Amino acid sequence: MAAVTALSAAQALRQQPTTSELAARRVSTGTRSNRQSKRYSVTALYVSISAAEQDEVDDELARAQKKLRGLKAKISAQSKKNFLLERDVRYLDSRIALLIQNRIALEENTEVANRLDETDLRSGNILDHRKVDGYGNLFFLLQTEPHYIATLCRLISMAEIDSFLQTVMFTIYGNQYEQREEHLLLTMFQSVLASQFESATEFSSLLRANTPASRLMTTYTRRGPGQSYLKSVLSEQINDLSSHLDLDLEINPLKVFEQIYDEALRGANGNPGLVFLERCVSAEDAANNAEVLEIVRPRQSTLLKIANSFLSKVIDSLDSVPYGIRWICKQIRSLTRRKYPNTEDSAVCTLIGAFFFLRFINPAIVTPHSYMLVDSLPADNPRRTLTLVAKMLQGLANKSTYSKEPYMASVSTFVDDNKIRMNKFLNDLCDVPDFYETLELDQYVALSKKDITLSITINEIYSMHTLLEQHLDTLGREKSSRLSVILRDVGPAPSVLPRSENFTLQLPLFSRFETQIEDLGAALDITQADVLFMETKSLLIQIIRSLPSSSIASARPLDLHGIASLAAKIHKDPLLTKKGVRALGLLSELKEQNILPDANLPGNALAEEIEEELAQLGSIRQKVLDETQSLEGVLKTIKDHNEYLQGQFETYKSYLRNVRMQSGPKKSSVNDRVGLVAVHGKGRKEPKSQYLGPYKYSQQSLQKEGVISVCNVPQNRVNNLYFYISSPTPGTFVVSLNYKGRIRGLLELNLKLDDLLEMMRNDIEVLDLEYVVVNVPRTLDFLQRQFSRRRW
Predict the structure, then answer these.
(1) CA 616 to CA 139: how far, in whole Å?
(2) Of 499, 443, 384, 337, which is closest to residue 48 (Cα–Cα)?
(3) What is the mean pLDDT of the chain?
(4) DSSP characters for 682-697?
(5) 3-state secondary structure of 157
(6) For the chain, what percentages of helix, strand and coil (3-state, to nearest 5) are there?
(7) Which of 582, 707, 724, 751 has the most CB atoms lying inside 10 A of its own CB?
(8) Of 161, 159, 287, which is closest to residue 213 (Cα–Cα)?
């Protein structure tokens, strides 16, 4: 009963459960009697009802909880904004890099320019009622049956992963602190991991390849809870190390030798003839150089101390690791033992380490600025030290007795000294209980609610619809499957809207396949006595929290009838009056049914449970305040990172505007890419129009150039086929396919130079235009030759 009481208090107060609370409440079904299981269910059921009514209570705890819920919602929303901004930065940076690598004068095209114009989407709705219902059904199905998303994760390409992650991690399961969504998301991870293990051919390759599944896992670790953990564990040490700008811990003998040579060269006033060292030596010679060894040895000692301090900090933080990350570690261990039953425990730990360190801890150590752990990019020396520390931690997690870099063998004692310690930590990470019984109850509660909504953009809906449609043969093989039925009803997937026309809507979620549950007690096979007892308890706790502390509510033992009667007489608060009247009625029912003969007799179960829960409120309030303070820091950090990303956007946009304004044949440089934007003086003339063409080309001439590889037009009509190609702005081409005698063209295609470059980088060699098949590399070469000489 005490465990049930603790559960009721903790959940009713909407706290993110700690590991100990989870362990206390998630007792294995096999060791619990049927009566206990039902009592657990009814407790959790009325806890959820009580939680839904918390806004009706206005004590200090309720206000603190309301503030915390608002803070968590802001973190979830801001995390999604940052993810979108980071995606746009990566997109823009990759396009600029492609153009620079190909030595082409860069110009801003409409797609790239518009990509950064809209950061906050407007709200609206262009969907009719039938479509809203259809998509509401679809996304309820995707959210509550995660195996669909898990299967899609296996099927999609790396080119589709960013938009997919956006919808899954920050929309469908976007409420990062809501227990039901978190558990559904983890269920999806279980399916993804199971698929990864099933398809694996080699133990050593598991979880290390860059796949949609690995990107999914990495993105999960960067959500609010993971970010909060990293900041609390790593930020102080990384900032302290970054403050020691002159601390050089380079241990690569070749680099150390170069440092010695450069120092000697400076001492000789730049005259190489006065330096008695060879500039180029082998790694072996450098490693055996006495002067190098003298410098490296103390550096190795210092580096070992720093690495040990980082390791100790991580190990000591075990109880702070977010539940979801620990649960994923547990699944990795379970699946490994199932697939490779004879594998040694240390080998199993290497796979756990491949996720926890390779995907979570070490990226934050190597690039702390992108994880918002430092205010500015660390200087060269600290950055190199952090990289070496991450290498050492990863080597320890991998249990490597060797290293790709021979010089790292000089700190191999770090692995030998900490193997046992690391194995214990990685195994301890996995020691968390499961949530399946809790999730089953949450699903019942969800089916009883009438106001579940999803904040989603119209393009997220259309993109997910398109993916589901493309892979329906795998996802819903039977025409009678729920997914197939819903997709038939909503019709074909529409094309995504231009960025400027995209908007956010609140999509109501519900299921057309399950009848809405009106009586959860009956659905869970709970006795009426349990329902009555828990409803009375929940209501009386709300009343006591709403009454003044100087009233009868503060007296002990509790006078439950007196408390309910007092509330019923407070006519200035109609809601409290209503609750008091209801509580009096419930107490009478308990007495009539002999569930609670007298609510005011000493030792009655109802009063005892209420007192136990009230006794916990003070400590829980403090936990709420502590968590609020911690998350306020997380929100500030995320907002600061948002400002940094916005600054990057402005740099890119200024650069693109600058290049577009230039009419001369200036070539892009790497300096341009990092944002060295020229400042134009007053009185600069507007550039002349850059529009070129249209120029006419016959089908035969383009085929001779190799631009057209296949022509699907009948041979007797080929001579009547011709193309007009124009270039409105540098880097943008309009191709019009025409047929002699027809006023309108057969098709018109807009080609972007960076799109063609990206196709080549992704090994896409042909572009099917229905009437003709175009060779991408030859097309790129042809357009460059034809238009660069005309433009310049």
Answers:
(1) 38
(2) 443
(3) 76
(4) TTPPPPPP--EEEEEE
(5) coil
(6) 65, 5, 30
(7) 707
(8) 161
Tokens of 334: 């379970």
Residue-level pLDDT at 64: 84
212, 164 Cβ separation under 8 angstroms: yes
Residue 266 tokens, joined: 């400076």
- What average pLDDT does the segment 662-686 reach? 38
Give backbone dihedrals phi and psi of 460, rounded to 5 degrees, phi first.
Answer: -65, -40
**Which residues are within 8 A (CB) of 678 and not within 5 positions of it... i.e. 6 or more apart?**
658
Span 282-291, mean pLDDT? 84
Pairwise CA distance, residues 316 & 665, whole Å: 59
Cis peptide before 694 (omega within 30 of 0): yes
C-alpha to C-alpha distance for 161 and 460, rounded to whole angstroms: 13
Answer whether 32's CB lies under 8 Å from 40's CB: yes
Architecture of domain 222-429: Orthogonal Bundle (1.10)
Residues 6+ apart with CB under 8 A from 580: 543, 564, 565, 566, 567, 568, 569, 570
Question: Which pLDDT does position 683 carry in this prediction?
Answer: 41
The residues, any chain, with a CB within 8 Å of residue 347's CB and separated by 6 or more, are: 203, 340, 399
User: Are the C-beta atoms of 23 and 633 separated by less than 8 Å?
Assistant: no
Strand 504-508 versus strand 453-457 pairing type: antiparallel
DSSP state of 123: B
Enumerate the CATH 1.10.506.10 domain ranges in the chain, comma separated: 222-429
Buried b / exposed e along 321-331 (16+ C-beta atoms within 10 A): bbbbbbbbbbb
499 by DSSP, 3-state: which? helix
At residue 444, the pLDDT reads: 58
First to last CA, the chain: 84
How many other C-beta atoms are found inside a 10 Å radius of the C-beta of residue 681?
6
Pairing assessment for the beta strands 732-739 and 747-752 based on DSSP bridges: antiparallel
| Residue whose C-alpha is closest to residue 447's, from 169, 140, 87 | 140
Distance CA 601, CA 724 (A): 95
Confidence tier at 134 by pLDDT (50, 70, 90): very high
DSSP per position, 755-778: HHHHHHHTT--EEE-SSEEEEHHH
Decide: helix, strand or coil at residue 545: helix
Distance CA 142, CA 123 (A): 23
Give the DSSP H or E segment for 612. helix 605-661
707-730, pLDDT tens digit by residue? 888 887 777 777 888 888 888 776
Assign 454 to helix, strand or coil.
Answer: strand
**656 or 137, higher pLDDT:** 137
Query: Is residue 9 over pLDDT 80?
Result: no
For residue 66, count CB atoms less than 10 angstroms from its CB and return exposed for 0-12, middle for 13-18, buried for 19 or more: middle
Taking 80 as the threshold, does the pLDDT of residue 343 lie above it? yes
What token pair was written down for 772? 């003709």
User: For residues 107 and 63, what is the distance between their CA atoms, to the nearest angstrom?
Assistant: 53
Written as six digits, the tokens of 517 are: 């549950």
Q: What angle do CA 24, 30, 36 make, to 5 degrees?
A: 60
Of 444, 446, 393, whose CA–CA distance to 421 is shortest? 393
- Highest mean pLDDT out of 98-112, 426-440, 644-658, 746-760: 426-440
Two structure tokens written together for 235: 């930020």
The continuous run of DSSP H or E covering 153 comes out as helix 147-155
How far apart are the C-alpha atoms of 475 and 470, rounded to whole Å?
Answer: 10
Q: H-type helices in 207-282, by residue range? A: 212-221, 224-242, 253-267
Polymer length of the chain? 792
For residues 219 and 86, the answer to whether their CB atoms sit within 8 Å is no
Chain-centroid distance, C-alpha 535:
38
Q: Judge whether residue 493 has pLDDT over 60.
A: yes
Is 253 buried (19+), middle (13-18) or exposed (0-12) by CB count in 10 A?
buried
Does residue 116 carry a pLDDT above 70? no
